[in-house]
Amino acid sequence: MIWIILGILVVLVLMVVGVYNGLVKSRMQTREAWSQIDVQLKRRNDLIPNLIETVKGYAKYEGNTLAKVTQLRQQVAQASSPAEAMAASDALSRQVAGIFAVAENYPDLKANTNFMQLQEELTNTENKISYARQLYNSVTSNYNVKLETFPTNVIAGMFGFKQAEFLQVPEEEKAVPKVDFSGLGD
Prior knowledge:
This protein is an all-alpha fold.
């Protein structure tokens, strides 16, 4: 009889250890996915000073935009949570896109080789950030599902595992763009 009880206890302990290790692995995958975003954010932050210097020489009247980019770049670097970093990052992406739009008004800037290379590198980096965000949300979803399913939720509660934050799309990016073709057919 004692062997049966000991056998059941050993199986329970092994189950708890296995579930705990699975939770630790999932939490680490979530952290690793965030670090991939962080790497791309740093890469973009490293490219932006070069972009600002290149644009400064051509777009003398765009000082406000350049100052805002510098400020947002600092906010991304100083963010204390994934949500805060992504909010600043999204705003920074919009400002950088604004710089590229402003470049349309400066033909010499658009033709500048350095500007074109920076534009391409920043576009590639934005694509990598987008992919890394998708990966992070996928890994986070898997982790959070584990935290909510039985019996993992019991063990997660015993050891203090917490839900991970999803990265949300800003409200202004969810809005359906208005397209007006009224002037095209004239």
